[in-house]
Amino acid sequence: MSAKKEIWEECTNLLAKAREGDPTSYEKFLRLVTGVLRSYLSPRINNAEDREDLVQEILIGLHKARDSYRAERHPAPWVFAIARYKTIDYLRKRKVGDRYFTTDNLELFASPEPVEEEEPEKAREILREWLSVLDERQKQILTHLKLDGMSVREVSEKTGLSESNIKVITHRAVQKIRKHFSLDL
């Protein structure tokens, strides 16, 4: 059996156990799919920081849409549909040019199945929960970067902090969220 098939079989099993209420299985699924997403995005998003940000956006999207996963179906189309939509949204929001995104690979974003629309209120609830563990400065910076779609430079200008300080605060905030919610990604 190929490594890819083994990974997706494991994802299927972990999602089934997670639906039965096993939180450890859900965490394992997220860790496993994180590696898959990094591999998926590597040839598509050239900038490593943008790629990691996008992995986090996709993981949040998967979490928000977890109720839309149909257990009788293979998880790959579901995961990649969310990854595709999140990637396209991410690129549009940031108006990223060719230096980050290779448009000649656009067909690689094709998804065999559509994903149901995510519920905005559920998404806001999850974001509020995740942001609640941060101090005000971390919350403000993450909100500007991740929700408002501002660049590091724009946040730097708005807050008066250096760009490198913005990156450090963002990194620490994400690490704090991961640690608090046991997302050992």
Which helices and strands occur, and which strands form pairs?
Layout: H1 3-19, H2 23-41, H3 48-64, H4 75-94, H5 120-131, H6 136-147, H7 152-159, H8 163-180
GO biological process, one term: DNA-templated transcription initiation
Domain RNA polymerase sigma-70 region: 26-95, 130-179
Family: Belongs to the sigma-70 factor family. ECF subfamily.
List keywords for this structure.
about 180 residues; mainly alpha; Rna Polymerase Sigma Factor, Chain: A; Arc Repressor Mutant, subunit A; 2 domains; about 65% helix; globular; transcription; DNA-binding; sigma factor activity; RNA polymerase subunit sigma-70
Written account of the structure:
The protein has 185 residues and is mostly helical. It folds into two domains: 1-118, Rna Polymerase Sigma Factor, Chain: A (Orthogonal Bundle); 119-185, Winged helix-like DNA-binding domain superfamily/Winged helix DNA-binding domain (Arc Repressor Mutant, subunit A, Orthogonal Bundle). The protein is 66% helix and 0% strand. It has eight helices and no strands. The chain has helices spanning 3-19, 23-41, 48-64, 75-94, 120-131, 136-147, 152-159, 163-180. The longest helix is centred in the middle third of the chain and has 20 residues, at 75-94. It starts with a helix and ends in a 5-residue tail after the last helix.
Element string (H = helix, E = strand): HHHHHHHH
Structural class: mainly alpha
Radius of gyration: 17 Å
From the coordinates shown, what is the CATH architecture of the largest domain? Orthogonal Bundle
Fold-level CATH name of the largest domain: Rna Polymerase Sigma Factor, Chain: A
Query: What's the end-to-end separation, in Å?
Result: 26 Å
Tally of DSSP helical segments: 8
Helix % is 55-70%
Global morphology: globular
User: Superfamily at the CATH H level of the largest domain?
Assistant: RNA polymerase sigma factor, region 2, helix turn helix motif
